[in-house]
Fold this protein.
Amino acid sequence: MSGKAPPGPYGFDNLPQPLPLRAYQNMAIVLRTGLLLTVILFVSGLALFFVVHPGESLSTLFSSKSFLRFLDPGALFNGLGHGDPAAILTLGMLVLVATPMARVLTGMIYFHEHGELDMSLVTLAVLTLLLVGALLLGPFLAHL
Amino acid sequence: MATQGWPRPAIWARRHAAGQYELRETLSGPTVAHGPVELLLVTLLLLLFAIGAGFLGSLAGLGGGVIIVPILVILFHVPFVLAVGASAISVLATSNTAGSAYVHDHLTDLRIGMFLEIATVPGALIGATLTIYLTKAGLVPLLLIALGVVLLATIPGSFLRHHSEVPEGVVPDHLSRRLGFGGSYQDKHLRRQVDYMGESTKPALGVMFSAGIVSGMFGIGSGVLKVLALDRAMKLPMKVSTATSNFMIGVTAAAGAGVLLAAGYMNPVLAAPVALGTTLGAFVGSRILPGLSNSVVRYVFLVLMAVLAVELILRGLGIG
């Protein structure tokens, strides 16, 4: 390639090695498992919702109030224990949001295992930002 | 509230009290009662519309998520912030489906994807925060106009062609050399091994930050901006650029969705059928895509997007 390239361990003359096949496979498994779980939870939760709450009004679609309680882990587990469809659907959303986070964690582990300190720190920062958003920023905005 | 008295052309409009976009109703729902059959019917309609959006979006190469918010807001009169939440959930679901296939094919550059997420994730956090803040401040019309403008801007952007199958004259920058932004893959079409490296990582970070803000604000994938960063700035091969962009969409959407969910702006009864429908539609679309000439579908989709965008802007301006 033409041009003056800045120094570094990698270039066209020394291409970086791809992550091991196992890393790719594990990430695909994480994504597929998360998606499968979500689909199961969404389908069963929706079906159960219309069985358990046949008289629910259309207003349900325009409100989030009746689902807020399941953001509390205790209430969520209690709701799941009682087969509450809203709790099942909320768990589906949580699984869906958590799936990419699990994928980032998987990447971080592999970068760490292969001694790529810079990339493992980058993925740690991404994971931290995701957790800060969901665990601190979101609840803060709820009470703004 | 500035939004009171907007026209409600859909069949459910007349049943709603004016001002349904107000925050109190986003959280507690409108007080007007509806029959139980309606909820089931509307949920089935949501599912059908989402299947259609996912299918057309997949054939058009833009993703169905881009028209989910306008459909929910204009046709179903869902409060804007809840529509954004449902759309973000649907984008997450479809990106998990596409992402797993791309990762499995080893076309995704994991280093580049994960590094650029350092820009898209804070962007998405800021975007979701902006949407919640503007909703609380009663400025939903501003959000409607902004989304309309973004959709209109996406239309010419969607005609951006990939730089080339395999870009030439790439000069790896310092970050690419240090962090290993490059690699090689076996291209079945070209019947050879393609070696690549990235360049201009810092400009790409800036574009990705903007993509994150748009994604977080409106619950969309911002694929056009991501292609700009990966394809135009970093000069990655087309296949790597597409796969890496899809890989990143999930994490970006998760950042925005996480904030909206934790802040209480998600309705699972709304989000579940939308996510299921969009994913199913996109899956079917991707299966039949290779055997279909999609230029007509693409133009139909873009026209539909333009109509929805104009409707959003008119509503934001209180016209129509």
